[in-house]
Amino acid sequence: MRIMSKSFGQLIGGLILRKRKALGLTQLQLSEDAFGSASKVRRISELENGTVSNPHPRTIDPLLVALGVSESEIAKCAEEANYHPDDDLTEAYAHIESTLRTVAEQFENENPRANFDEITKFLESKAREYVSLKQQMNEILKSSEGISNSIQNASSQIDAGNIEGAMSFLKIAEDTQLQEKTIKQIRKQASISITRGNCAFLQDDLNLCYQCYERAALYLSHFDKLEMITLFEELAGQMYEGSRRSAFPHVWISVDLLNRCLVEIENAEISDVVLAGLHLKTSMALRQHGLDLVDAERLRVLESSIDHAREAVKLFSQLEDDSEYDLPSAQVALANSFLDIYGLAQDHSHIDTAIEILSDAYDRLEQAKNSRPIFSYVANSLGAAILKKSGFHQASHSPEAMKRAREVFSASEICARENFDIEALISASINLGQIFFSQSQALEESSRKSEFLRLLAISKFMQCREFFSNTRLPYQLAELHFLLGEVLYVHALFSNEEMYEIFSVRCLDAYFQSLEFITAEVEPERYAYIRCRIGAVYGNHAVRMKGDTEKHDLERAIESFEEAEEIYSERSDTSSLEICRSNLGRLKEELGKIG
């Protein structure tokens, strides 16, 4: 006859019965001792009668504790029944015992006729839900980017039995995850729009390029204002730097992007340092944009540039932790805009204001050793302002001002070399070359000192030209070629026959290269002046060298002066027109002699 083994529930029920009897307790007394209530008598009866097949120890813990049942006694029952507790459920019960008790009471209140097996199965299901929830949270933690703290807090709340607290942290995690998922999609959308804008730029569709860039930044407007600002700045900076190195104007895209950004954050809480940076970048972009405009429009743009630069200076000045770079950068932008306006309006108050601003920045930075890179730019701007005020292109320039300018530019040149700053070095060296050339013109042009100063100027200009293979700045390059042409023009006139030919050819080359960017449409008066210079070089060469090239030289000279004559005539520049026609008359007379 086969002996049927008893279940763990039957064995543990029999043990409870024996323990109760040994202690002389009734089922009612045990119910009150274990549960604090007589309502659990039926449960005890079910256990003792063996009708509960597989109760988890945690579900009957109050009875086991009240009866003093040891762990070894429970283990013996489990061994006889070949019963293996679920480790996950054991851990779950250990972590949320109080919560399961509360849940069990609610279940019993709602289902007073439920037996012990039903209660056990219900609590086991809740415990398994806990295990599953923990596993889910662990999986979320592995893949989460910004919600780990919320998930960990929720997990801790569950461990403590605080489901309501866990739910509140999970709500935070849910919202954060939704935000993260959404912002990922938005960033992807913005990236696509930027790429489309880049393609439009390559096709010279600048309006579409701007629209795509603007749309890309605005995608981020409702999610992260700072990220939106950063993208606006990056795209505007890309356009700004690209325009500086291109013969085709498109810096207006930078201006419009920055202006749109300022509109978008008008009522937002943005830090002063971020706002100041936006105003500074806008001022610089506007000033660059002015180079592409005619006088009236350029004046309006420069006035706007001054407004933005002033705002940047004001905001940076108020910052206690301002870096030694930001404020002087804003001061340079403000002063340079004043200098540009002076070039248009010739109002000396503008240049005095610029010198005052730059002198303040220069004096502070001269003692700040960790601000050396920006020092070069401040020094270059200050030196340029001093030269403009002194009228150094005129014979009446101030020697004291020239001396001060040389000191400032020399300090800038040294600083630029120390910091390997090519652009700052180019600017300082060009200005030093201009000073040497100007000083040479104040002397007898055939003197050895004048010749030496001209050679110093040529050396500075030629040195700078070598750097433009690495730094292609079209307007600055045009200016450099023009200045080189000017000093070579004078130097050729006072050279011997052998060197005259060399310097004349180099002079023409410099002037022609300057005309690659100085056009009759953008700078008609300067263009006409250079055409007159080219005509003068050909005319002088024809008279001085004669020979086989004389007729060709005279024809080229006449051609250049006639082009200048047309421009002067259109602009009603009577004085320049008179000089131009006088030269044309002499050249045509010489050409007529050749036949």
TrEMBL record:
Domain (HTH cro/C1-type) ranges: 16-74
InterPro entries, per the entry: Cro/C1-type_HTH (IPR001387), Lambda_DNA-bd_dom_sf (IPR010982), TPR-like_helical_dom_sf (IPR011990)
Gene3D superfamilies: lambda repressor-like DNA-binding domains, Tetratricopeptide repeat domain
GO terms of molecular function: DNA binding
Family annotation (PROSITE patterns): HTH_CROC1
Highest taxon of source: Bacteria
This protein's name: HTH cro/C1-type domain-containing protein
Organism, scientific name: Thalassospira profundimaris
